[in-house]
Amino acid sequence: MANAHAHAHAAVHHEPKRYTGLMDWLTTVDHKKIGILYLIAGGFFFLIGGLEAILIRTQLMYPDQKIFVGDTFNQLTTMHGTTMIFFAAMPLLFAFMNAVVPLQIGARDVAFPFVNALGFWLFFAGGVLMNTSWFLGGAPDAGWTAYAPLSSIIDPDGKFHGVDFYVLGLQIAGIGTLIGGINFLVTIINMRAPGMTFMRMPLFTWTVFVTSILITFAFPAITVALIELMFDRLFHGAFFEASRGGNNVLWEHLFWIFGHPEVYILIMPAFGIISEVVSTFSKKRLFGYSSMVFATVLIGFLSFMVWVHHMFTTGIGAVGNSIFAIATMAIAVPTGVKIFNWLFTLWGGNIRFTVANLFATAFIPTFVMGGVTGVMLAVPAADFQYHDTYFVVAHFHYVIVGGLILSVFAGLYYWWPKMFGRMLSEGLGKVHFWLFFIGFHLTFFPQHFLGLMGLPRRYFTYMPGFGLETGNFISTIGAFLQGLGMIVFLINIIVTARKQKDAGNDPWDGFTLEWTIPSPAPEYNFKQTPLVRGLDAFWKEKMAGNKEMTPAEPIGPIHMPSPSILPFVMSLGLFISGYGFIYHHYIVSGAGLVITIISMFLRSLFDDHGWHIEPEELEEHKGGKA
Amino acid sequence: MNRLKKCMRLIPLFAVMAFLLAGCGSDKLSALQPQGPVAREQLFLMKFSLSIMVLVTIVVFAIYVWVIVRYRQRKGQENKIPKQVEGSHVLEIIWTTIPIILLLVLAVPTVYYTFKHSADHRADKNAIHVKVTGHQFWWQFEYPDFNIATAQNLVVPANKTIALELASADVSHAFWVPSLAGKVDANPGPVNVLYFQADKIDMFQGRCAELCGASHALMNFTVQSMAEADFQKWVDKMKSPVTVPADAKPGEALFKENCMACHQVSAQGLGVGPNLNGFASRPYIAGVLDNQDAAKKDDNLHKWIADPQGQKPGTKMPAFGQNFGGNLTDDQINQIVKYLHSLN
């Protein structure tokens, strides 16, 4: 009955409601546009986080400097860490997930386009909420890990609300990430093109699949932790207060039960990107595909059993520490499998050093160095020395910047033509690469030694005369070089945006389905759903002498989801509500929640059956129009 | 471009050399220059794990360099399609098994030393027992066996096991003396334990290693090791009644009036602020300003009393200088300085 009505509805309203300009971006449910939104927002926060890093390094360039001291410095490090992890790295990966995964699996959209838009707007609301704290009395200053009871101290004057911004900002953004993860899980399970079995999925899709599982299981832990911290801060709870029967170590456990899978949530898609780029640019299919898949799943599984290695000095005891030490070392094995598989994908290949591949090949040795220190850190007795020093700072920047960010750049240069229809400049790209790569190693390599020589992390100064001056100076110079590299990248984006669309369907001679359709992809992605006949579907067709995929269906009307402003309004409601909680104006909190709940009712009460693109229209759009 | 890449690979090498020349930091602060058995065993673990990992790294880097040099695209090969390889069971078994063996080798000393270095020496009769309490932003040291309490400068005999019990009075801190032993957290809840031993008579630098607020970076302390007999002398002096020279009497009166609410000057008094018994022999004022340089120490202490926030942001000590909102004139502060620097 409802179905029949839907058809009648669609037939009457042949012309769908379409918005242009700003309204188009606020209401879009198209995964490709949401991908671009994630990219812009994530890129923006990446620049803010980078600026904070430059300020931190400027303060530490020489001993005893007094540019940013005390709480100001703690605010910079806290916001740098939180912004980079939650508001830069995560959304940049979500940008790729949105821009690429549906295309790689031959789908026309994600499973829940509305939820997809909601996920983006919630993340964005959380990020903006937290960053406004800079102008509202001070940013959070208890570290991105927000260890209680430092994080549960309440300003007696009621002027400083830093950690409240942290709690509510992350809580709101976290809902967005969680529903995003669920959405991609369902998408990958349900929306694959005919013939694309699990073991025929491109590796990037596989890693996103595992990442989505990790998101689904890890984010509830931080949600619980944040709610407890919120109760401690807003309603005088005592979850983490020892003097009233609480336990501050509880926060550390909850945070890292989330926090460790979180770093694998970040690095998994990076592994996927590297796999795609390395294989494409050596013109070879991935070496050991099935062992790669197995390694990915195994790393994802193990990532839940190693969180205590962040807490070796907390006082867990030798038994607990040893168990988690061995579990941590075990992760090195599947990770090593991946490294060797990439090397042997390159082996015997015909390697083109495009900028994308420069970043991808630079990833391999850099990530190995981060992995090496990772195994060293897994030894608890030695970690008693490393823990909370610059050695750890060096380690996680090697895996997150040297691993994740290098692969994000590889992915950007690789998929930019598919997202925007234009090729990024290779010349500027090479300048970007060398500045960033050399700057990166200059910044973080000396930090290993600084840590071992007695410099704890999160220090705003250090005494002269203990051999810490040279390393800090080199490190700061490196940070400036990375900053220069980013400026070159921004110039590259501007130059590229100003030129004509110049990207063909398949500029890199790719292996996977996204390269079978125009660049940028039309809003319905595939005019006809492709029939997948093997792993590396497009490559297989090319080798068989075909120019395009065999369609799995005749040309017919394509069902499209309607745009909607509701995701934006729902997020706005929570955004307003967040300020209400921070300032203890619960009427405002209530009003914000009412806005969100009314939007949810509107969404539930009024059926929206979407609209159809008719075959005649498809012919008009042959060239592909975003 | 290839040549550039080669040159670039030398950069870390140069960095390593720069650090070797710098001598791995200071023997007062560096974990790379251990001055006691615990730190030495931890350095051994670092070197042992690093050696295993360097082995792996050399193999990986060798394959990597070979691959990107040998298999890069040359002119005229643009359309060449290389032989497609699906994988190799033999290779995959090799690079799964060898790392497992290497990790098993690493696991043995890992577990051994993890248990050894987590050992609880609180019941050890031959050890010196100290109860450590972290405060924002200073350290309190109590010696239950001798009934004395001090702060900021942990005095210990050399060549003896020092058994610590650690807790915090406010937020989490971490007690770290890199050249003697790795760190452990001082939590506001259940206590933790740590032990170490100093091989020689020296002064070692300690640092707080868990973010604890605005002056986390300034929560420094020192560990002073001395000969057994000197240690006994120090204990006796700490327990003997404080004698104040005549010219420091006015300062003592001012101190009692303004500072006693927080600071004790007695063998075992504890307060909101550090016990200042024996203050003149401590190496630093508040852990950060020089207290031994005869030319600077009086000025430093004056600066600290007048404007503690300026030296250590977030400290709980209020400003006493009139220029900083306090109630003491420069002369009065000088009197207090004279008094405190008479406390040997």
TrEMBL record, chain B:
Which regions span the lipid bilayer?
A: 50-69, 90-115
**Membrane topology reported for the UniProt record:** Multi-pass membrane protein
Outline the extent of the Cytochrome oxidase subunit II copper A binding domain.
125-237
Compartments, as annotated in UniProt:
Cell membrane; Membrane
Which coenzymes or cofactors are required?
Cu cation
Annotated catalysed reactions: 4 Fe(II)-[cytochrome c] + O2 + 8 H(+)(in) = 4 Fe(III)-[cytochrome c] + 2 H2O + 4 H(+)(out)
Span of domain Cytochrome c: 246-344
Q: Which residues form the Cytochrome oxidase subunit II transmembrane region profile domain?
A: 23-121
Q: How is the cofactor bound?
A: Binds a copper A center.
Please describe what this protein does.
Subunits I and II form the functional core of the enzyme complex. Electrons originating in cytochrome c are transferred via heme a and Cu(A) to the binuclear center formed by heme a3 and Cu(B).
Question: Per the similarity annotation, which family is this?
Answer: Belongs to the cytochrome c oxidase subunit 2 family.
What name is this protein filed under?
Cytochrome c oxidase subunit 2
* Species this chain originates from: Gordoniibacillus kamchatkensis
